[in-house]
Design a protein that fits this description.
Isopropylmalate Dehydrogenase; two-stranded antiparallel sheet; globular; binds 1,4-dihydronicotinamide adenine dinucleotide; single chain; 10-stranded mixed sheet; Isopropylmalate_DH; binds magnesium ion; 12 helices; IsoCit/isopropylmalate_DH_CS; 12 strands; alpha/beta; 40% helix; metal-binding
Length: 362
């Protein structure tokens, strides 16, 4: 059997700093588990622009299409703010998502016991929380035509179009059902079928796909009610599937139920490859954090937990993923925290490297 292959794109700002900690974990797998990843590393974002004049070189794009999984740090920074939109660092990331056709965006909201006090909600509402939002990422109102600002009579009109085809709904629904099968076998689909035709079609197609997954308990909820339920009693959910726009809002809402940006991983999945695994890009939700870059202050957990998602969803190593998540929890429980996880004064925060070392030790 060939080794699992991984393309690492550390990117800009704190990207390389947090990725260095993931490297320690990859090395640990080789040394302690005899699991060797074929790791290649390349440039994306501002650093790629500095070297090649483009935020993503064609060779890097080609490599991303071949590997089992891509792990990305973060892109962007003030140095590149004045660049033309077409060559901005973010375009490198957008190109990866588009050309890999990553239509299914996974955003977990998981509460680490040690951080239950850190939430803005009551502890018993979030303790033990573990839900997954699946957001459709390549269609819907952010892409639908017609769009634009037009003259109409003596005023202007701004138009965006919510548009979903059956096949677009079908494939993201399937991705969500597959996930539900690996988790608590419960899926809630959210749209606004009460006021939107695209929502009516969404509900019909998801229901139809559900017939292929009789073990999964499927429910439907209007997205506005879903937002209320997510803050009232989020533990009623396991997997939620929703469109691009509602998913943008609901995934940010759900993510903040449990705490800091420095803790949030994500995965973006596409169609299954020849080996049956989906095309996949894993990345922390946070950006390049120029305000703390180069100071050893960044929390590496979001990137480490993104790697845990890669273990689970690209490498069939769910048990190892769980162990890695438990290691992060154990480190937090020991009181080892980067500055973003401390709200009391007088405690010395752990550095990025100290946090990573502690996870490896745990
Ligand atoms: P950001 O996520 O980089 O930072 C927001 C705040 O959170 C900052 O105060 C930062 O210090 C803090 N923070 C972020 N990650 C952290 C971590 N791991 N540990 C501790 N603190 C952390 O978002 P911002 O400031 O809006 O954007 C900065 C740059 O990053 C911009 O160039 C933006 O375009 C880019 N960006 C890139 C993204 C990506 O690569 N996926 C996503 C979001 C922004
Ligand atoms: Mg958002």
């Amino acid at each position: 059997m060939t080794n699992p292959s991984l393309l690492i794109l550390p990117g800009d700002g704190i990207g390389p700093e947090v990725m260095a900690e993931v490297r320690k974990i990859i090395d640990w797998f080789g040394a302690k588990r005899g699991i060797t990843f074929d790791v290649s590393e390349d440039l994306v974002g501002g650093c790629a622009y500095d070297k090649h004049g483009t935020p993503l070189h064609d060779d890097t794009m080609a490599k991303a299409q071949e590997v089992d999984a891509v792990l990305l740090g973060a892109v962007g920074g003030p140095k590149y703010d004045a660049l033309d939109f077409s060559i901005k660092p973010e375009r490198g990331l957008l190109r990866l998502r588009k050309e890999m056709d990553l239509y299914s965006n996974l955003r977990p909201a998981q509460c680490f016991d040690a951080l239950a006090d850190f939430s803005s909600l009551k502890k018993d509402v979030v303790a033990g929380l573990d839900i997954m939002i699946v957001r459709e990422l390549t269609s819907g109102v952010y892409f639908g035509e017609p769009r634009g600002i037009f003259e109409e009579g003596n005023e202007r009109v701004g138009i965006n179009t919510q548009r979903y085809t059956e096949s677009e709904i079908d494939r993201v629904a399937r991705s969500a059902f597959e996930l539900a099968m690996k988790r608590g076998k419960k899926l809630c689909s959210m749209e606004k079928a009460n006021v939107m035709e695209s929502g009516i079609l969404w509900r019909e197609v998801v229901t139809e796909v559900g017939k292929d997954y009789p073990e999964v308990e499927l429910s439907h909820m209007y997205a506005d009610a879903g937002a209320m339920q997510l803050t009232r009693w989020p533990k009623q959910f396991d997997v939620i599937v929703t469109d691009n726009l509602f998913g943008d809002l609901l995934s940010d809402l759900a993510a903040m139920l449990t705490g800091s940006l420095g803790m949030l991983p994500s995965a973006s999945l596409g169609a299954p490859m020849d080996n049956g695994r989906p095309k996949a890009l894993y990345e922390p939700v946070h950006g390049s954090a120029p305000d703390i870059a180069g100071q050893g202050k960044a929390n590496p957990c979001a990137c480490i937990l993104s790697f845990a998602m890669a273990l689970r969803y690209s490498f069939d190593m769910g048990d190892e993923a769980t162990r890695l998540e438990q290691a992060v929890n154990a480190v937090l429980a020991q009181g080892i925290r980067t500055a973003d996880l401390l709200n009391e004064e007088g405690i010395t925060p752990a550095t990025t490297a100290e946090m990573g070392d502690a996870v490896v030790a745990a």
